[in-house]
Design a protein that fits this description.
It is built from no helices and 48 strands. By secondary structure, the chain is an all-beta fold. The N terminus and C terminus are likely disordered.
């Protein structure tokens, strides 16, 4: 049986009170009263509240269809597989409308309502705010609106602005997509998302935000209560996917937490020249949560003051900026708990500079790769266990690289290295450091200070280099090399350190025509807390 409920003016509306709904007995005129209540049945209902203001629509346990919700409405769908469409009008004339203070529940209002209640709600619901009507209607967006799809395999989608609103998928595998933008007369109308909360709920959810502006917004795979039991979620924040347009996408003060599960999180695009990349990402926090997560963050211009956490387990983190990465930090685990962190892969790249940034692999055998033109005032740490750290830059200045605990491999390559430090271990703890491999290459100049060391000819290819007596204080001295005594090494400069009790040996080697300069206003301190081999 299929019952078509239409609201009429003047009252009484069809289906009101205790009367049974009748089929096709009223026309779909606009509601004019300040508050209208329309109830469906446990049958298959079609409820149309065309442009009504302050409407209350309750649909109970059947598979139902609701069209034409507007204003500060309350829509409560029942246990069945329901469809809610905003707006469903297909005829002229068109008009603009929006949601403000509306409440939409996919599987029953949480508390009992007059006329009945819904317990243990479930059902596969579709809540569609994509303006499917053929007329020239414009959905202006949603403000202070709550959309809770409830349990089941649900879909929530809207193509335009949303502000200060909450969207929840609830339990089940849900899809939430918002902000793609609408097209009027062939022109794309941009959309913005601000001050919102998007939650997938339990199970494996997909959340996609596609807008030209995403600010002050939080996205979670699940809420705080269900977060530890959350499934594998996919979260994407980008511009209008597939358009290849140069879209002005600004992301500011965005907070993402994938919670538990092997989550995939992407903000912007690693291809920083593509149309869906965010121009700038500022003051944002992105967390993978526990389990093995994939996190990709890409800004076409700058990534500023933002933090990325892989959290527990083995994560893949890729961060890129077409221009600068300024401030912020990138963690394979987190600063709070590293006990459950495993080997992470962290790749960081900028087209211009990385300045004031902090990178920490945390626990596990991590791989960290940093590529930039200028690495300035930044710190890179492997954390505990056996880490592989690679740094490639034109210039490295006022920066530090620490292998920390374990047997680490550190490879630093730059044209110029100034006022920087490279440690196989760390300042704080050397007792748990292992045998480290450190390779430092500079094609132009490198400024060095070796503390309390003896330079010895440990390899025949580096005979007659020079010898410095061990001293308790730092030794700064020009070390000349003659071409007949030095064979061209594979890298421009190779430094070897060997820790043997309290005695440290330091071998310095340079290719023909290259001098290693003494420390002056700028110097590089190479910690003798590691073993380095060619």
């Amino acid at each position: 049986m299929y019952t078509d409920l239409r609201v009429c003016n003047p009252p009484p509306p069809c289906g009101s009170g205790s009367a049974k709904p009748r089929s096709h007995t009223c026309s779909s005129l606009a509601m004019t009263s300040s508050y209208n209540r329309v109830e469906g049945t446990d049958l298959q209902d079609l409820i149309s509240a065309v442009r009504g203001q302050s409407d209350s629509i309750l649909v109970y346990n059947a598979d139902d269809f609701v069209a034409g919700v507007d204003g500060d409405d309350r829509v409560v769908l029942g246990l069945g597989n329901d469809t809610l469409t905003i707006f469903g009008q297909s005829d002229l004339p068109g008009f603009a409308f929006s949601l403000n203070g509306a409440e939409i529940y996919g599987d029953g209002f949480p508390n009992a309502l007059e006329g009945g209640s819904v317990a243990n709600p479930s059902g596969d619901d579709s809540i569609d705010l994509t303006l499917p009507g053929r007329g020239p209607s414009v959905f202006l967006g949603a403000t202070n609106t709550l959309i809770d799809a409830g349990a089941g395999v649900d879909t929530i989608q809207g193509w335009t602005n949303i502000e200060l609103s909450t969207l929840r998928g609830g339990e089940g595998t849900d899809t939430i997509r918002w902000g793609y933008g609408i097209t009027i007369n062939g022109d794309r109308i941009s959309s913005s998302i601000s001050g919102g909360l998007f939650e997938g709920g339990l199970a494996e959810d997909t959340i996609v935000l596609q807008a030209n502006q995403v600010v002050d917004t939080t996205i979670r795979g699940a809420d705080a209560v269900n977060g530890p039991n959350d499934g594998d979620d996919s979260i994407v924040v980008e511009g209008y996917a597939g358009t290849n347009e140069a879209i002005n996408v600004e992301v500011e003060r965005l907070v993402i937490n994938g919670n538990a599960g092997e989550d995939s999180i992407r903000v912007g695009d690693l291809n920083t020249s593509s149309g869906s990349a965010a121009l700038n990402i500022r003051d944002s926090e992105i967390r993978g949560g526990k389990n093995n997560d994939t996190i990709e963050v890409g800004a076409r211009f700058d990534l500023v003051g933002s933090t990325v956490y892989g959290d527990a387990n083995a994560d893949f983190i890729a961060v890129s900026a077409g221009r600068d990465i300024i401030g912020g930090s990138i963690w394979g685990g987190s600063p709070d708990d590293t006990t459950d962190d495993q080997g992470d892969l962290i790749a960081i790249q900028s087209g211009n500079r990385i300045t004031g940034n902090y990178v920490q692999g945390n626990g596990g055998n991590d791989t960290i790769a940093v590529v930039t033109s200028l690495l300035d005032n930044s710190t890179i740490r492997g954390g505990k266990d056996e880490d592989d750290i690679t740094v490639e830059a034109d210039t490295i200045t006022v920066s530090q690289v620490f292998g920390d605990r374990g047997s680490d491999t550190i490879d630093v390559s730059a044209t110029n290295i100034q006022s920087s430090s490279i440690f196989g271990g760390s300042f704080e703890d050397t007792t748990n450091d292992g045998a480290d491999f450190i390779s430092v290459a500079a094609s132009a100049t490198i400024q060095i200070r070796c503390s309390a060391v003896t330079v010895v000819p440990t390899r025949s290819t580096f005979r007659r280099l020079c010898s410095l007596a061990a001293q308790p204080k730092a030794v700064n001295k020009m070390i000349p090399f003659q071409s007949e005594t030095v064979r061209q090494p594979t890298k421009s400069v190779i430094l070897l350190f060997l820790v043997i009790s309290a005695t440290t040996h330091c071998l310095l080697a340079a290719p023909m025509g290259l001098s290693i300069h003494p420390a002056s206003t700028a110097e590089m301190l190479i910690s003798p807390l590691a073993r380095v081999m060619i």
